[in-house]
Every structure is written in C-alpha cells, then in structure tokens.
Design a protein that fits this description.
This is EGF-like domain-containing protein. By secondary structure, this protein is an alpha+beta fold. The chain contains 16 helices and 90 strands.
Length: 1260
C-alpha cells in the first residue's frame, strides 16, 4: 500500500507517527522511529477496549472506554515529553455524537488538555489547564465540525498561545499568562474512558519544537482517481496532500465492510477489498494490505513478518528459498528488496550496489559499503584502492594508489587541483615544482635533493632540453665546463689534479686510465712503486729495499709468517726468542711454557700475577686466576667455589672433609644434602618434610605413588592409587571410577543431554506429539493440557505409543479450518529412556474443520445405488448357480466388498465422497436391529473417533453385529427343515438330506465363520478399543468381543493344522473324516501343486487378520498401514496367479478380478497420503468409484454365466427325482470321499452385505 502522506516535515521534530490506515493489531508502530509505540485499548493482553481495524484506519464504535493508549503503556514505559511548543494533528471521519477525540492528563488530573466534539450545533470544544493557567472550555463555530466527511484536526500549543484548526480553519484560540509547561507523569489517549468516539481515525501525529503551518497537510483541490483506499468519492474538500499530489479516502462509514463495500461479516474486525480479514496475533503489529505480521526492530523500524527467515523468500509452492547472499529481503532469487548492507541501494537490476564514494567490502554484512579514502573519487576492493581519483591530473595505478601524471607533482590528492605542474627541467617532480624525480634531459638524473644532475660521463649544457647533457672524454668519469676537464676519473684508483688531469693514487701505478682498473696496485710491501715488481718506498718504516727492488725487515725484527707484506714486528712479551708475532720459541719465566696461541703461559697449577710472574694455585685447583680462585678442579663432581678453592656440585656432598674433596651423590629428589639421607634443599615439585626427606607435590586431579604423580581417571576431582574419592558435578562414584549421572554426558565434564518433540496434525485431526527419543515417563491423559487459542471447548481421545503421544480431537462446535490448538505437557522434567531431558513442553498447531457438511452429489448417489443393484443381481445369479454348483462366486465378490468398505476405518485421508461411496456399498439392511432397543446407547458406549467417523454409533458388538447374528440364526433354522425333508420326502432326497444333516454342524459353522471372519474381527477390535461402562451391558459386550478376538487370532493357525492333517493322511480314514467334515475348505480346490496349493484359506485368514490389525492399530502410521495392505494384497494376487487353486473357472476368474481391484485401490490409497491439488483428488475419486463399479459389473456377468452353465445339472437333478418317485424303488448310493469330493454340500456365505444362501448337495 502507498506510504502515508504526512512525511513532509523534518523528521527530527516528529515524535509520533501512527498510520492506522495500514497498520493495526495490539501494537501500533511509531513510524517516526522514536520508539513511541501505542497499544490498542488499555493493554496488549486484553481486547476489551480495542478499536476495530479497517482499511480506513482504526474504527471507534462508540463503546465506553474504547481507546488507543500512547506511552507510557505496557509496550513503552517512558512517557512523551512535549515541551512548550508542539502540535497534534489527525485525519478523522466521525459520526454524530458527544465524545473526546484525544485527551492528555497528569496523574492527579491537575494538568490536562483535550479535544472534544459536541453533537449539538456540530462544533468542537477544547480545554487547556497547566500550572498557573486554566482556559476553561472553549468552543468552535457552529457546524465547524461536520460528520460523515474526512476532517483534518490540529491542536497546536506555541509557548504563550494555543489553537484548534479544523481543515486549516482556526476554530479556537488560547492566550496563556505563562509559557506552557508540564510537570509529573502524563497519560495520553486517542479517545477516552467514558466518551469514546464513533468513526474512523486514519492517522495521528505529534510534532515538537515547531509551530503549525497551514496548507502542509491539506489542499482545496483534488485529482479524481487518487484514492488512498480502493473507492473514493468524486470530490473531497479538503484533499490530502502526499507526494505533491492530492488524494481522497473512502467515506463508507460501515466498519463491517471495506472501503469499497466488500462485506467483512465473517471477520471479527475489518477486511480489505478482497475480503481478507485483519487478524493480528497477541502483542503484534500487522500490515493492513497483506494482513501479515510485522516485527518492530530494536531501532524502531518495522519488518513485515513472513514464515520465511531473513534472507529467504516464499516461492510459488509455498516453500522458503534462499535469497542472494547480500539480500536482507527479496521476492525471488534474482533481485533484492532490501540489502543487508545499511547504506547500499538497489540498482535497476535488483542488485545491491554501494553508492559513489564507497566500496563493497562485504555486502553480506550491515557495514558492507565502506567509505573510500579522500584521495579516491571511486574505489573498489578496499578504501585505498582507487578506481578514479579526486585530483583531476591524477590517475589510479595498478596498485589502486592515485599518482599525479608526469609533469605534475602531488600537493593534496583530496582536492581536484591536487596535482601542480613541475619545473621545465623536471619530467616528474614531488613536493615542489623544482624537486625533480626524473629529468627532462635523457642523460640527467635527480639527486636526493631533487636537483637534476647529468649522469657520469656527461656534463651539463641545457637541462631543459632532452639532449642537455654532453659526453666527457673517456678517462673522465665526470667533467665540467668541457669534455676534458675531469672532476672524477674513470679509473677507480685515479684522481684529478688541479688542472683536471687524472693521476693514480699512492700504492698504484698507471696502466690504462680509460678503464675502471686503469691503476694497478703495487706490492703490499711497497708504499710507492714503478711497476708491479719494483718498490720506490717500503710500506713498513722498519723495512729496507734490497737490490732486487723488494723490501726486508731490519735486524731484531721479524716478518709475520716470513712475509714482509705483513710488516715487521717485535717478539711477544715474555718470549726470549720467536719466529712469529705470538709464537715464542723460549720463555723468560721458568714456570711458563710457550703458548701455542700467544706468547708464554703459566704451567698447570700456576697463575700469572700482576707482576707477570707465575705463582702456585690453591691446593684443590687444577687451574686458577688467583691463588684461591679456581678455574678448574682436580676432583670429580666439583666446581670452583665462589669463596675459595672447589666445592661439590648440586646434588652431591663432601664425604672427605678436606681440601681435595670427595663428592658423592645425594638422593635423587635433593638439590643439596648434608649426607646421603639428609636433604637440605629439594628439587622443583618436591617439598622437605620433618625427616629431611623430599616428597613429591602433585597437581589437582593427580595422586602421588612411589614419588611419581599420576593423573586421576576422567571425572575424578580427587583420588588415590586405588579409586576415585570425589567426583565432578553431575557425576557419581561407580565402582572405582566416576560416571555421569543418568541424562548427562561428557568425558571431563558432565553436561545435560536433550531431546525434542514436534507436533503433527493430519486431515482427520489426529494430533501426534512425536518425540525424537522414546520417553521414559508414563505420560497419561492428566499430564497434558489442551486448550484452544480460539476459546473453544475441546474433547479428545489420548493414547501413547513408544515415542508418540496421540490425540484425536473429537468435537468443537463450529470448528473452522485453521482452528488453532495448544498442547502443553504439564509434567515437569520429562526424560527419555536414555535419560535425556525434554527441551520443549508447549506445542501449537492448526486443525481441520470437523463440522463441515459433505456435499455428496446426486451422481455419486446414483453410482452407489447402481452398485447396490448390481450386487443384488449378482447375489440372485450366484444363488441360482450355487443350487447345483459351487457358490464360490458369491462369497468371493462379497468378501471383496467387505474389504473395500472397511478402508475408511483405517484413517487414510480419502475425500468425503470416497468415504461416502465405500461406506455406502458396505451393507444391505433388511431388518431393524432389536438390540438397539435392548441395550442403552450412551456416551460410555461411544466408539473411538475413527470408528465414529466411519459410521458406528456405538461400540457394542452385539448391536453392530446384529446382521451377522441374524444370518447365523436363520441358517441354523435349516437343520429342522432338513430333518423333516429326510422323514417325509422320497428316499433319494431323504438320503441326501441325511448326509447333509450328518456333517452340517461342521460345514455350516466353518462357512459362517469364514464369511464373517473379517466383520467379526473388525467389530471385536472396535469394542475392545472403545470406551464402555462398567455395568452388565458393557462387561457383556467386552467379554464377547474378547472371546471372538481370540478365535479370530487363532483361526489361521487352526486351519493350517487341519489342512496339514488332511494333506498328509489323504487316503487314511482320518484324512477322509477331516475332508468330509471340513469339505467346504477342500472340495472346491484343485490341490494339485503340493502342500501350498491347499493353503488358500490359510492365506485367506492370515491376510484378513493382518488387514484387521493395520486398519485398527496403525491409524497413526498411515504410510505403514497402506504399504502393508498393498503388500498383503499383492501376495494374495500372486498366490492366485501362481497356483490357480479353484476348480471352477468362474470362481477362479472372479477371485483374480476381485484381488486385482483391491490391489489397484490399495495402490491409489497411497497417493492420498500426499498433499494433492483438487483436480488430482477428483481424478482419484473417479478412478476408485469406476473401478469398484466395473468390478461389480464383471462379477454380475460371471455369476450369470455360471448360472447358465449349471442349468443342465438342475434339469438332470429334477428328472432323477421324478424317476425315483415313479419307479418307487430303493436307490442306494455310496458316498465317495477323496481329494476330488463328489458331494456338494450347503455352504453359507455370511457378511454384512449377504444374509446367506443354501446349497443343496447333488450326488454324482
């Protein structure tokens, strides 16, 4: 939405800026960034006196006490300080009434001012009272304050005067006797306790230290179409000034609609033009255009709330994606809305860019744009790496440093004229125009004083010219005035004389003066020479020149190493004779000997006295510098003493007690000792005890053993060599070591370990609190507190399973989508089985609406009716075919319907239409249920939530299973009918009836149990899992369900044992009896592929037992439930395809079609566990419904074909009866029972959808 209009004044004088037109909630943000946030009503924790948010601002409904409270309040403890000069302004649209618009008062109400509207005469009132002044109530002009139009109000106080303006017209004037002042603590309100306004407040501003100026906020003309709200009047006077343009606001006075007239009837507050309700969380501030939560930063700025973190944006799929690294906020991953760096700006490409005079140091930090150095006009990489320079005659080098161009020098690179032209002699200069760095003349260089000097071998002619230096003669290194007047010579050892002619120096002679080595050296013995081999003067004054022109030493002197080049020297002091300066041949002192180094040395045991003679050393000295000051000692383990002679070294003591010393070692822990057992001083980390022994000192968490310190085990504070004595915090002694307490971990320090939990809610409003570890606590119903943030009373079921606590939310009147619940674990210090501590105890989440009506289309109802008609047709056809053949097609089809109809019980989030369809095909109710009248159905017999959602009204199994009981009793009544037929009908029929009666009790009960197995198992589990009352009705039903459940669980095992006996005793009498009694489980199968081919019913029972288990117990693990059902169905289908167990081809095809249909629907069920679009859900609905419909039609066709194929057998049977009556003769028949049975017996198929049928046995 557009920013508000009132931003033209200097921000430093504005202390309050509330923009009710697009900011609402429990907190109103102060956009002046002064931190003076207001609160809605009188507290952020209550809504009793709150204004109503609309797109035209805060709405006051004339409710007593309705107000907005400025600081001090529960959001900001410091109140407003207004001073002696300020003004308050606001845009309002009000309706008729008497009320305060704003009120400010001190604690004792001795100082206050207010602005009031009087309904009579439509005028304004105001009152100002402060220390030493009371204005009395002043009134404005009649009809000066109109209703149902936007009005701009100003209350201005200016030191000694005050004014009230309405639409920039001065209505009230005050003149004070003293300067306005305030003392004490003040409260400040928009509205007031008992006289709250009725109407809209668009904004509210306070400026201090400034007088009000008209025509800043209002304008007499208005540009049509400039609306601050969606719909505006065609004209408004005055108009609102913003951004040098005029605007209007909608004058719609209904708070229950938006400014454009959109109804907000479903909202507790107002709404915007698209009907989005304004709803803000507790103690929050929200944006009116988006309805999103905004957060107030520590610096007073405002951030729009998003489910995404800073640096993320919400993509089109509702997922949070990362912005570019330097974005604070963004709409996508290619451009920024705000930059992380405070002074960066967004360029045309949406990228963060540093402004001129700064460089990007790190755009991912708040201070990422650093200022360039003053020398840089622009810079990059660092503040000193210039791209362009401030000085116009300077340029940035490759190092980024600004350098003045050639011909100029640096004066002040921070200004544009910072480079000044050099002197004409200078090619470049520095510091001043005459201090050259390089010179104009090519053969000139600048010296350390910046003066241009011609290079060696040239002389100065004109240094302002490129050829200003002229070449010297070859023997001159330097010259002046002319080429042959040398000032220095080319030859290193030559020098110019007074005339500029080069001469060789002393010790050399001229060889070639045009080269650097033109003066060659004389011999070292020569001071001067004529050539390399002839001296003219010797270097040593005690040497003479011989006839060969070489020098030699005079008598009494010697040449060092016999080489005169080194000079002539006297012999060394103390030498009688010598050949070299330091090496004597003989010495003057008898106790001295020639030294191999220099002169003569005193012999060992003697030292040289001050007089130079050699005197004897102290007795224990091997050598000395004085008589008693030893250098080395005679005895081992001794060192020279600082006092006299020698002493034992550290760690040794003298055992001889004479001057020669006999030093023996002390104990290893001693530095000094008097003897081998008494220490005087100890080594480091040892201490002297009372027995003069040194004992080891150990550190903390160490112990001493045999003079050595050993570390204690981990977690021990103190220990000895055997065990820990004390332990670290949160640990305890266990055996000889310390271990962390339960729930703590660490090697050196024991710290708490934590586990956490999260909340999940599915579409069935099954709430799971999932713990990351299995909890050790026995959490129960009473350990949780479930409340609704929408203040709705909830009822729910609860149970715990390992690391999951389940809650099934059952009802709440008119609970809508997005309804929020809060679950709090009341029990403290919840621990996991590993001892970890729970880190979170409060969870919140949104549930799905549970009272919405399901819109079941007439088309879907027609499909259900058609499917039921097909089922009845199939029933008739299969009964007819079953009279003379196998009725397998009947129970195969209805067992398929049984499995499908129980799918919604498992909790898979099918659509409402699929739930309706599957539940509707599940039963044909032909009789009323008498047990519903015998048993009292109340809340204590209410089924658990999923069963209740499925359609069970009670948990009592005797009521839910009435149709099964009726089938059982109905078919049980066939026994007396068969007995009567046996007695009165012809013999051929009589004998057949007898055989049927003989084994009826087995086949009847087996077939009934087979057909009712799934339904009875489901009903038993429902009874066990649901609530019941502890009375006869409840106990009876629970006991009955428990017995049936035990039989349900044991059935697969019992059938496996029976089939094993029958298979392995096929030709024995035992096998014959088993097959006859349980023929309904054998006669219809081929049994020709080994033992597994005879186990159809074992797999049948086992598969249904697992199906019952998944549908009842895995309602909170839907993925596992559906995958297991899918696997069981696939295995059943694979068994049918591999073994083809049925003899009857129609039964075989019927079984494969049924299982394929179930497998398909199980597979499709897996898709419902994902969040799918409405279109995809409609496709799944259609696929499932059509699949069941097609399956029913295929079964119908198969049943009709089976009936037609058995018609010939029916005809033969009737003819056989007629022939028997006609001939009246006795017919005997022998019952042949083998693996291919020759009897067809009554088989009863029972389910919720089938009341039973009778098959007469036909004898081959």
């Amino acid at each position: 939405m557009i920013s508000l209009l009132l931003l033209t004044l200097v921000s430093s004088t504005k202390i309050v800026d509330y923009r009710f037109g697009y900011n609402f909630g429990q907190v109103f943000h102060d956009y002046s960034l002064s931190g003076n946030d207001a609160i809605n009503g009188n507290s952020v924790s209550t809504t009793t006196y709150d204004t109503i948010p609309t797109d035209r601002g805060a709405y006051y409904s004339y409710t007593s006490g309705q107000m907005i409270t400025l600081p001090p309040n529960s959001q900001q403890s410091n109140g407003l300080s207004l001073g002696s000069k300020f003004y308050i302004c606001m845009w309002v649209l009000v309706q008729q009434g008497n009320y305060y618009l704003t009120y400010r008062e001190n604690t004792g109400k001795t100082q206050y001012f207010y602005l009031y509207r009087q309904a009579l005469d439509n005028l304004s009132k105001s009152f100002v009272k402060f220390s030493g002044y009371s204005s009395g109530e002043r009134m404005g002009s009649v009809n000066g304050f109109l209703t149902n139009v936007w009005v701009f109000l100003v209350l201005s106080i200016d030191d000694l005067s005050g004014y009230v303006y309405i639409n920039d017209v001065k209505e009230i004037t005050f003149t004070y006797t003293s300067v306005y002042s305030e003392t004490g603590t003040f409260s400040h309100y928009i509205g007031y306790y008992n006289y709250s306004p009725i109407g809209f407040f668009w904004n509210y501003l306070i400026y201090i230290n400034e007088s009000y100026t008209t025509s800043v906020f209002t304008i007499s003309t208005y540009t049509p179409g400039n609306c601050l709200v969606n719909t505006c009047p065609s004209s408004c006077t005055p108009g609102i000034i913003w951004n040098e343009n005029s605007y209007c606001i909608s004058i719609n006075s209904l708070s229950t609609t938006s400014g454009s007239g959109t109804s907000c009837s479903i909202c507790t507050g107002g709404c915007n033009s698209d009907g989005t309700c304004f709803d803000c969380e507790y103690a929050s501030s929200c944006d009116i255009t988006t309805g999103t939560l905004m957060e107030i930063n520590s610096d007073g700025t405002l951030n729009t709330y998003s489910p995404c973190n800073n640096g993320e944006y919400l993509d089109s799929n509702g997922n949070c994606q990362s912005c570019m690294s330097y974005c604070s906020t963004c709409d996508d991953n290619t451009s920024c809305i705000l930059c992380l760096t405070s002074n960066a700006y967004i360029n045309d490409s949406g990228q963060c860019t540093c402004p001129a005079g700064t460089f990007a140091s790190d755009l991912t930090s708040i201070s990422g744009c650093q200022s360039c150095d003053a020398e840089c006009l622009t810079c990059s990489g660092s503040s000193t790496f210039c791209s362009t320079c401030t000085a116009t005659e300077a340029s940035a080098g490759i190092s980024g440093k600004c350098i003045c161009k050639d011909g100029t020098y640096e004066n002040d690179l921070t200004i544009s004229s910072g480079c000044i032209a050099c002197d004409s002699k200078c090619l470049t200069c520095s510091g001043s125009s005459s201090f050259c760095l390089t010179c104009t003349a090519t053969d000139a260089t600048a010296d350390i004083f910046g003066k241009c000097i011609c290079k060696d071998g040239t002389y100065e002619n004109d240094l302002t010219q490129e050829l200003g230096c002229v070449a010297c003669e070859s023997w001159c290194k330097k010259c002046e005035d002319s080429a042959d007047k040398c000032t220095s010579c080319t030859a290193i050892e030559a020098y110019p004389d007074d005339h500029g002619i080069c001469q060789c120096s002393i010790g050399t002679y001229a060889y070639d003066l045009t080269t650097t080595n033109g003066c060659s050296p004389c011999l070292d013995q020569c001071k001067t020479c004529l050539n390399a081999n002839s001296c003219t003067e010797c270097a040593d004054p005690y040497a003479e020149i011989g006839d060969d022109g070489l020098c030699f030493c005079q008598n009494g002197k010697y040449a060092l190493n016999s080489n005169i080049d080194y000079g002539c020297y006297n012999c060394y002091e103390g030498c009688k004779t010598c050949l070299e300066p330091l090496l004597c041949l003989t010495c003057s002192d008898p106790n001295a000997s020639p030294s191999p180094i220099s002169g003569c040395d005193c012999n060992l045991g003697y030292y040289k006295s001050l007089s130079g003679s050699c005197n004897p050393c102290f007795e224990s000295c091997e050598s000395c510098i004085e008589g008693n000051k030893c250098l080395t000692c005679l005895s081992e383990n001794t060192i020279p003493s600082e006092i006299q002679g020698c002493e034992c070294i550290s760690g040794y003591y003298d055992s001889s007690y004479n001057q020669l010393k006999n030093c023996k070692p002390c104990d290893i822990s001693c530095i000094k000792c008097s003897n081998e057992i008494n220490c005087l001083e100890c080594k480091e980390n040892y201490i002297l005890d009372s027995n003069n022994k040194c004992v080891k000192i150990c550190n903390t968490q160490q112990f001493e053993y045999l003079g050595i310190c050993y570390d204690c085990p981990d977690l021990c504070l103190t220990c000895n060599k055997n065990s820990c004595l004390t332990c670290e915090d949160n640990s305890q002694i266990q055996g000889i070591n310390c271990t962390c307490l339960w729930g703590y971990k660490g090697k050196t320090v024991c710290e708490k370990t934590y586990f956490t939990a999260s909340i999940e809610i599915n579409k069935n409003n099954d709430v799971n609190i999932k713990f990351t570890e299995e909890i050790n606590e026995d959490l129960g119903y009473e350990d949780f507190n479930i409340t609704s943030l929408d203040k709705c009373d909830l009822s729910y079921e609860f149970f715990k399973n390992d690391a999951i606590c389940h809650f099934s939310i059952e009802n709440c009147q008119d609970m809508a989508e997005g309804f929020t619940i809060k679950i709090e674990i009341i029990k403290e210090n919840v621990r996991s089985v590993s001892g970890s501590f729970l880190d979170k105890y409060i969870f919140e989440g949104e549930v799905y609406g549970i009272n919405s009506e399901v819109d079941i289309s007439q088309g879907l109802k027609n499909i259900v009716n058609s499917t039921n008609i097909i089922m009845k047709t199939t029933l008739c056809a299969t009964i007819a075919s079953g009279l003379m053949g196998s009725p397998s097609c009947i129970w195969i089809f209805f067992n398929t319907i049984d499995i499908l109809s129980f799918l919604p019980l498992g909790g898979v989030p099918y659509t409402e239409r699929i739930d309706f369809f599957l539940e509707s095909i599940g039963g044909l109710k032909i009789l009323p249920n008498p047990f519903s009248m015998l048993f009292n159905i109340n809340n204590y017999s209410e089924p658990y939530k999923q069963a209740k959602d499925y359609g069970f009204t009670t948990s009592y199994i005797i009521i839910n299973g009435f149709s099964l009981l009726f089938n059982f009793l109905l078919l049980l009544g066939l026994i007396p009918l068969l007995y009567i037929a046996h007695k009165i009908l012809p013999k051929i029929i009589s004998e057949k009836c007898y055989r049927i009666i003989k084994d009826y009790k087995f086949n009847y009960f087996i077939r009934f149990w087979t057909q009712s197995y799934l339904s009875l198992g489901i009903l038993s589990f429902v009874q066990i899992k649901s609530k019941y009352e502890w009375n006869f009705e409840g106990v009876f039903n629970v006991c009955l369900a428990s017995i049936l459940l035990i039989v349900v669980i044991l059935s697969p095992l019992i059938l496996l044992i029976i089939s094993f006996i029958a298979y392995h005793n096929e030709i024995s009498d035992t096998g014959f009896k088993v097959k006859r009694k349980y023929s309904c489980h054998f006669k219809e199968f081929r049994n020709n592929k080994g033992f597994l081919s005879t186990q159809f019913y074992t797999f049948y029972f086992l598969r249904r037992l697992l199906y019952i288990f998944t549908q009842i117990t895995l309602i909170h693990s839907l993925g596992t439930q559906v995958i297991l059902n899918l696997i069981f169905s696939a295995l059943q289908l694979l068994y049918l395809i591999v073994f083809l167990p049925f003899k009857d081809k129609y039964a075989m095809v019927s079984a494969i079609i049924s299982e394929a249909c179930i497998l398909e629907i199980m597979t499709l069920s897996l898709l419902f566990l994902n969040d799918l679009s409405t279109k995809k859900l409609e496709i799944l609905e259609t696929t499932i419904i059509l699949s069941v419909f097609i399956c029913a039609n295929l079964h119908n066709i198969i049943s009709i074909c089976a009936f037609i194929s058995k018609f010939k057998d029916i005809k033969s049977f009737i003819l056989e009866i007629l022939e028997s009556i006609k001939k009246k003769k006795k017919i005997t028949s022998k019952i042949e029972c083998d693996n291919v049975t020759h009897t067809r017996e009554i088989e009863i198929s029972t389910s919720r959808t089938f009341v039973g049928n009778l098959e007469l046995v036909k004898l081959d």
